[in-house]
Write a structure and sequence with these properties.
By secondary structure, this protein is mainly beta. The protein is built from two helices and 42 strands.
């Protein structure tokens, strides 16, 4: 009798397990691979079956194969994978249609096949997004609890009438959320872990992005201090620091008078559309017509955006201005050294670079020396001064030896950056030492009274300069008369004048005159020569003896 009761209890336990599985599989039945045919009371039932067969109470059944304990396995369905440990059963349902092809959510219920009274056991509920979009407000509910005490769950469950629910929020594309539950059976018998339902509430929402494009502009000039002959580089950068596209962006820069950018007096350029975070840079070459300080701003505008301006950017334009002054000593002597001094000054407000002085060697002179590194190059003395700052002066000296008298010109030209140049000169009067040699002579020392007799006169410029207004006057003694001369003329008072005019240095003009004497004896002819360059007349005498005929 006790054996029959024991058999009946085992049969009741099997019926409870079948009832637990029945609730969750009401819509989707697991496959044969998913249901594990393992019975822990199989050995006991087989022993009872043998005893009954031995007594003849029941007919011996055909021999059945030995059942093995199930192995862990992975079940994949609709791209959702569930790992089922050994001894666990997996039951699945797709919501809302029951088919994974037309549903958005697959719920897998992973439960143990058998539990003990009063002992904790674990089961899982898997919620898997079957779609490539986000499921919103996903809620899983475990209802129809019977003989089950919920110990804990992760995430935390919310108790409600007839069961518990889990609000999983949004479930990303193809994502899976696992609910891990720990429960306890209150008493022996059938344990209903409940049925699982799931829902999600997707909404079709339209989102309009609200953007706010903006403009910013910067203006840079480099360098900000230039010479009139130089160019500066101006860059204007327009950027959009906002969150939307700035359309029809335009840059305007009305340059100050006298300043041009790439030859234009104003910049008015459209640069199109600037996306968020995008910038555009414009580059120009600035040139100035005159030296002064300039300053202005650039501005940018776009459709629907207020105009913005850059900071005021200054540009200073300077110019060098060179002057040169030539200084001479005034006069000098032939064969002596003379000095030419040149003073160069930058009277502008900018530096003069590559400053060079060039002075030709004066005509009729020889180069002797130059200070400050001056070099004689092909008849010119050249000084390379380099940089000459605004207000700065430099002095250079050239020494020459003058070989002829007259006016000597000392001139020089200075050149520097920005095509600045200047020329100046001074004059030197070079004087030579005058000297003159004179001669009054004849070839015959004894002359017969009454015969013609010829005298020769000479004037030699033995000095360094030309002699001007050279004049010789010959005085004849009493008894001697002037007959003729190619150059001389009788000026009365028994005098003959020879006017030689200007006699250059080294010249020796010669002339003659013919006389007769009416008396005998020693007669002395006296010549006296004068010129503008000598204060003292030069005297030259010639003595001739005249005799009576027949002596």
């Amino acid at each position: 009798m006790r054996k029959m009761v024991k058999e009946g209890a085992a049969a009741l336990a099997v019926a409870c397990l079948i009832s637990l599985a029945g609730c969750a599989t009401s819509e989707v039945q697991p496959s044969r691979d998913e249901v594990v045919r393992y019975d822990p009371h199989a050995a006991e039932r087989r022993a009872m079956q043998r005893r009954l067969e031995e007594r003849g109470a029941v007919e011996r059944p055909a021999e059945r194969p030995v059942e093995r304990a199930p192995e862990p396995r992975t079940i994949s369905r609709g791209g959702c994978a569930v790992n089922a440990p050994a001894g666990m059963t997996v039951q699945q349902l797709a919501f809302p249609t029951g088919s994974v092809d037309s549903s958005g959510l697959l719920v897998s219920y992973v439960t143990p096949r058998q539990v003990r009274v009063g002992s904790d056991f674990d089961y899982e509920i898997h919620a898997c997004n079957l779609t490539s979009g986000t499921l919103q407000n996903v809620i899983v509910t475990n209802t129809s609890f019977s003989n089950l005490e919920l110990v804990s769950s992760n995430p935390q469950a919310t108790a409600g009438p007839g069961g518990y629910s889990w609000n999983l929020g949004d479930l990303g594309p193809n994502a899976t959320q696992v609910i891990r539950v720990r429960g306890r059976a209150r008493s022996a018998g059938q344990l209903a872990a409940g049925c699982v339902t799931a829902s999600y509430n997707n909404s079709l929402c339209a989102t309009t992005e609200v953007v706010q494009p903006a403009l910013a502009i910067t203006k840079i000039i480099t360098p900000q201090d230039i010479l009139i002959c130089q160019n500066a580089t101006m860059t204007i950068t327009v950027s959009n620091p906002g969150t939307g596209a700035a359309e029809n962006v335009r840059v305007v820069d009305n340059l100050p008078a006298g300043l041009t950018a790439d030859g234009q007096a104003a910049i008015n350029q459209e640069i199109g559309t600037l996306g968020p975070g995008e910038s555009r840079t414009l580059t120009f070459a600035l040139s100035a017509a005159q030296a002064q300080a300039y300053e202005n701003v650039a501005s940018a505008s776009a459709a629907g955006i207020d105009q913005v301006s850059s900071d005021r950017v200054p540009l200073t334009v300077r110019t060098p201005q060179l002057t040169i002054n030539a200084e001479c000593s005034g006069s000098g002597l032939i064969g002596r050294n003379v000095v030419c001094r040149f003073v160069v000054t930058n009277t502008g407000n900018g530096p003069s670079t590559d400053t060079v002085i060039t002075a030709p060697t004066p005509s009729g002179s020889q180069f002797v020396s130059a200070d400050n590194g001056g070099v004689n190059q092909g008849g010119n003395v050249v000084w390379t001064l380099g940089n000459l700052n605004a207000g700065e002066s430099r002095t250079v000296v050239m020494t020459n030896r003058v070989m002829s008298a007259g006016n000597v010109v000392c001139s020089a030209t200075v050149n520097g950056s920005c095509n600045t140049s200047a020329t100046n000169q001074c004059n030197l009067t070079i004087q030579g030492v005058p000297d003159i040699g004179t001669l009054v002579t004849d070839d015959d020392g004894v002359v017969v009274v009454g015969n013609d007799h010829t005298y020769r006169v000479e004037v030699a410029n033995q000095g360094q300069v030309a002699l001007t207004n050279v004049r010789m006057v010959v005085t004849m003694p009493q008894g001697m008369t002037f007959v003729s001369s190619p150059l001389g003329r009788d000026i009365g008072g028994n005098k003959v004048e020879f006017n030689f005019g200007n006699v250059p240095a080294g010249q020796r003009p010669i002339s003659t005159f013919v006389v007769r004497s009416s008396v005998d004896g020693e007669l002395l002819v006296i010549g006296e020569t004068t010129c503008n360059e000598l204060k003292t007349p030069i005297r030259d005498d010639e003595l001739t003896v005249f005799i009576q005929p027949g002596e």
